[in-house]
Amino acid sequence: RLKRLLEQETAHQAKREKESNKRIAKLKEELTKLKSFALMVVDEQQRLTEQLNQQSQKIQELTTSAEQAHEKLAFAEAKVQEEEQRASRLEAELQAQSSKISQNQEAMMAKLTNEDSQNRQLRLKLTALSRQIDELEETNKSLRKAEEELQDLRDKINKGECGNTTLMTEVEELRKRLLEMEGKDEELIKMEDQCRELNRKLEKEASQSKNLKGEVDKLNKRIMELEKLEDAFNKSKQECYSLKCNLEREKMLTKQLSHELDGLKARIGELEAIESKLEKTEFTLKEDLTKLKSLTVMLVDERKTMGEKIKQTEEKLQVATSQLQVEQNKVMSVTEKLIEESKKALKSKSDAEEKVSSVTKERDELKNKLKAEEEKGSDLVSKVNILRKRLQSLEAVEKEFLKNKLKESTKSSTSLQQENNKIKELSQEVERLKQKLKEMKAIEDDLMKTEDEFESLERRYVNERDRAKLLSEELEAVKMEVARYKLTEKAESNQEQRLFKKLKEEEAKSSHLSREVDALKEKIHEYMATEDLICHLRGDHTVLQKKLNFRPSLNGRRISDLQVFSKEVQTDPADNEPPDYKTLVPLERTVINGQLYEDSDNEDKDNNEEEQT
Fold first, then answer.
1. 559 — pLDDT class (breaks 50, 70, 90)
2. For the domain that residue 394 is a member of, what is the CATH number?
3. What are 134-145's pLDDT values in tens digits?
4. How many domains does the chain have?
5. Residue 161 DSSP class
6. Which InterPro entries match (predicted)?
7. How many angstroms separate the CA atoms of 397 and 395, rounded?
8. Among 210, 253, 303, 288, which Cα is nearest to 66's?
């Protein structure tokens, strides 16, 4: 039955899909028309917005240029004031410095003239002193010669070679001359001191003259710098004059820019009013378009969802049947495996219990043996300790015996043999005890191995028990899933009935939506007709206005010059504007026979009532 119902539904859905495809094609054509109309409106809006943006950018550029010009003017005026102040300061400084320099020059020139006259006098004195020094040197030479002659004469007198009175008189004359010459020598020494003082004074005056020359050079450099400053001051005056001219020009430009700004602001106000009207018309058109788009999208989405739901239900039915068969096979195989594994688990349990019982018995026996052997080992250890003590005492005795061996060799031979025999017996007992210890260690190793085997068997037993529990849980889960699948089959049958009901309801909705779409199409056609009529009337109006503008009046003027004085409405600036649908109510009523707005209001009321239901 389900298959027959599904086949009938698929055929019915195919028919409906064909009808819906036809309707969708028609709706797509109408949507393309609406989109073209909307694109036209959007293009006009974009063009106007671009014009507005361009004009706003121009205004911003002009404002920025005006602000920059004002800033430049203020900056230039401040610079001019600063430069005028600097010029006045420099003039005052130049006058003060020029007066100071002239005074310094006069003082320096007077000093130089005085120093030149002093230098000339000193040079004359130096020449006279040099002459006197030459004369004194000549007299010194003659005095030395006279002294040599006197000494020769004295030698001769002392020898008694000549004793004439003439010689004595000559000697006295020579003495007088010597005294005169000594007085002249003192004068020469004084003259030399004066010459040294004069040389010092000359050196001081030469250094002072060098310093004065350096100061004169500095003053000349300062004068050159002042001349350069005067040239710079003249240049700055010329620059100030040029800046003043530029300021006046920029003031004129700013006035012109301010007038242009006012005109642009007025144009912007007009453009903003036009833009507001365009935005209103665009908003109304967008609302109509969004309604149409939402309706078409809702219809398409609902049909797609219904088709997808039906396909999903069919796929779910097929998947559920296949899963039922697969899981029934799984349940059969799992039950067989569980039976086999339960048998194996029972066998392994019995074997493990037998092994555990045998291992526990062996373990108890081995523990008893271990206890007995441990007791024996403790006894043997005590005996070994006693024997060690005896050996130590025997070693001490042997040492004493070796000391007394030389004295009592004959007596101790028998006792030594006895002690040697005792030592051999003790060594044999120690070896036996070692062997017993080795055996005990081997027994302990065997016990450890048996304990490990017992623990591994216990682990295996626990693992087998866990596996059996898991298998039993899986069996229960499989049983629960089988019960769930049975319940899901019942629920799916109920869901199919619900889906049929939903399909019928959605068909009713789609028919209702198609009616609404038809009503909206009629509205759009009416809007298009009104728009064509408005464009035609606007073209006629522009043609008539051009004819009126070019028609001459009585005075030879055109009527366009006298439009300001007429009472008619000027429609030239609104040629580029789109139609304002709210202001064209009478035209629409004439075109639509007076039923457009009433029908739209009634349809809005019907839509609101349907949404409330």
1. very low
2. 1.10.287
3. 777 777 777 777
4. 2
5. S
6. Cortactin-Actin_Reg, Cortactin-binding_p2_N
7. 5
8. 253
Residues 267 and 333 occupy one common structural domain: no
Lowest-confidence region among 244-248, 328-332, 454-458, 566-570: 566-570
111 and 209 inside one domain: yes
**Domain membership of residue 415 as a residue range:** 327-493
DSSP reduced 3-state for 408: coil
CA distance 257 to 123: 84
Would you state the structure tokens that stand for residue 321, as one six-digit string? Answer: 């049947």
Q: Residues 73, 191: one domain?
A: yes
Residue 274 has pLDDT above 60, yes or no: yes
Q: Where are the alpha helices (DSSP H) in 551-584?
A: none
* Percentage of the chain exceeding pLDDT 90: 0
Instruction: Inform me whether the pLDDT recorded for 19 exceeds 80.
Output: yes
Residue type, position 584, single letter: L
- pLDDT at res. 309: 73
Asked if residues 84 and 240 have their Cβ atoms less than 8 Å apart, the reply is yes
Evaluate if pTM is beyond 0.90. no
Are the CB atoms for 2 and 317 separated by under 8 Å?
A: yes
Residues 281 and 331 in one domain: no
Average pLDDT over residues 410-425: 63
- Answer whether residue 439 is part of any domain: yes
Q: Identify whether 604 is part of a domain.
A: no
Last residue of a domain, one of 458, 493, 528: 493
CA distances from 545 to 84, 398, 536, 541, 551 (A): 64, 160, 14, 6, 10
Do 198 and 126 contact (CB within 8 A), yes or no?
yes
> Quick one: tokens of 258?
């301010």
* Contact in structure between 334 and 475 (CB atoms under 8 Å): yes
User: Cα(506)–Cα(510) distance, rounded to whole angstroms?
Assistant: 6
Classify 576 as helix, strand or coil: coil
The verdict on 132 and 255 lying in the same domain is yes
Which one of 433, 460, 493 terminates a domain? 493
Which one-letter amino acid corresponds to residue 40?
A: M
